Every structure is written in structure tokens, then in C-alpha cells.
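Checklist before submission:
- one chain only
- standard amino acids only
- sequence pasted in full

Submission:
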Amino acid sequence: MSPQGSIDFIGDVGGAIFPCGWRVHDDGDLRLYYGAADSVMCYARASLIKVIDRVLKDPV
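Returned file contents:
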């Protein structure tokens, strides 16, 4: 995971994200909560199954 959107670059520490926690929701989505540019809170989401498959295929 790396800074990509404009919100990740505008703030006190531009170009930085800070993972804060994660949760699996009832719909099967994994949500990773993070701070962006030391100014806002955001979340990224993906299918938990797809994340697990990706990690197993490329664990590095």
C-alpha cells in the first residue's frame, strides 16, 4: 500500500500514509483504515478472499 490519491499528498506530512487498523465486514470486504498526509482518516477496501489469494501467490 502506498500513497496514490491527491488526498494522500495534501497535509502536514504529504506523501505518507499511516495504517491504523483493519476489519472484515459482513459483506466479505476487508477494510484497512489509515491516516493520509497526517491530516485525514481514510479506508481502503478489497475482497478478503482476493487479498488472501494474492498473498498466497506472492508472499514477498
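Reviewer check: The radius of gyration is 13 Å.
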